[in-house]
Amino acid sequence: MHSTHLLLEEPIRMASILEPSKASYFPAMTKIVGTLGPKSKSVEVISGCLKAGMSVARFDFSWGDPEYHQETLENLKAAVKSTKKLCAVMLDTVGPELQVVNRSEKAISLKADGFVVLMPDQEQEASSELLPINFDGLSKAVTKGDTIFVGQYLFTGSETTSVWLEVAEVKDKDVVCVVKNSATLAGSLFTLHASQIHIGLPTLSDKDKEVISTWGLQNKIDFLSLSYTRHAEDVRQAREFLSKLGDLHQTQIFAKIENIEGLTHFDEILQEADGIILSRGNLGIDLPPEKVFLFQKAALYKCNMAGKPAVVTRVVDSMTDNLRPTRAEATDVANAVLDGTDAILLGAETLRGLYPVETISTVGKICAESEKVFNQDLYFKKTVKYVGEPMTHLESIASSAVRAAIKVKASVIICFTSSGRAARLIAKYRPTMPVISVVIPRLKTNQLKWSFTGAFEARQSLIVRGLFPMLADPRHPAESTNATNDSVLKVALDYGKASGVIKSHDRVVVCQKVGDASVVKIIELED
Length: 527
Description:
Pathway: Carbohydrate degradation; glycolysis; pyruvate from D-glyceraldehyde 3-phosphate: step 5/5. Its EC number is 2.7.1.40. Keywords: ATP-binding, Glycolysis, Kinase, Magnesium, Metal-binding, Nucleotide-binding, Pyruvate, Transferase. It comes from Ficus carica (Common fig). The radius of gyration is 24 Å and the shape is globular. The relative contact order is 0.11. The longest helix is centred in the N-terminal third of the chain and has 18 residues, at about 65-85. The protein has 18 helices and 24 strands.
């Protein structure tokens, strides 16, 4: 199956470009996070998204009320049930996001070289002379000559609905700006981004805390996407907040890097967070265009070496209104995969785009093609060198399992895990074949009732490249004699066969714990 892997360093045969792409059960190793909203709310569309390859659903609380998102989530549960495809839930906080409020929803047209006042009074009516904003500290934060960007919420960059402003003067709490380009602002909510300026608002607002402790707790969210993470302390505070909320102590925190401040403290944030989301839309405004590719490559490399999932946003903006991405976008998705991203996050494309299912399917196909030319050999050597010696016990087992699987051309790696850590470490070495992580539930009690853990761990691997989780039967314990483990193994092999990744005479690498020892074994399947 994997002898067809080409490397970009080798001359690529034209034939491989002209060959049609083959469909497979696991559409791509790279995961796709879809933002659910008005255009992707029905059970039917969400089912289509799951079948097309979405494995994490993102609920963005910058808009919509908890009731609206709850309806969408109930539809997601129904879709998961009918398609039998697991899906994780990510709650995206609002954070210190500056917004222009247009209560009347009338279109506002701004003309180049005209003046507009940003006023911290949300009761005011928005017009071409005055834009009401939700933050009264802007006048203290900006000075003459600073750049301010105002665009449609989840703007795609191609519309004429975004405008660049330059601060002309500051009057008390009002900021007077010169309009740099003509634009029409349509809709009720616009994002306001002040370029390279510190905004003195908490990363986790009271509104965010309320949503997490009600909606988040009730729905046992798998991931918290922490918008505008600027320091490691932001992540620590969020974790402390989650630790007091029952089951949410298991929720993973993904730090969303959106501005220069977050980039400056990237290393310390990466140490604290469970994963990173590179918000390229906002970073693209904060950084000069020629630097955008550099931060992506540097940040993804650091995430890969730390073995933490990295997610890239804003890839196929034009698919919000079109069935096909632009050439630049198609290349961009492929390059994100080659740079080492774990997942691609779709925002406007699925939230208010006309083609949510087709977008997921197209992105999945591009990811699958670029994975074929990913230089695993070079990546493996680089990672081993970075980790250095002596390796930890688990790291050594994980890297050996991947090396063995590549040497014997195994069609799949099966990993038994209860915390999910072993499977994530195997994925860190980017094997060319899928990793089926068999999550073994653990029994726990609070003296009043029994409960099983494992569901969180299984869903949280849905954002890691190449990991495909399945929940084992709790009657078969993880660390036991070989006999019972084999029955769990049989279930995993049957799952692989049913999904078409394992055929007779294939070799499979199995990574499991037997007693106190970790074992990597290679099995060859009979007919």
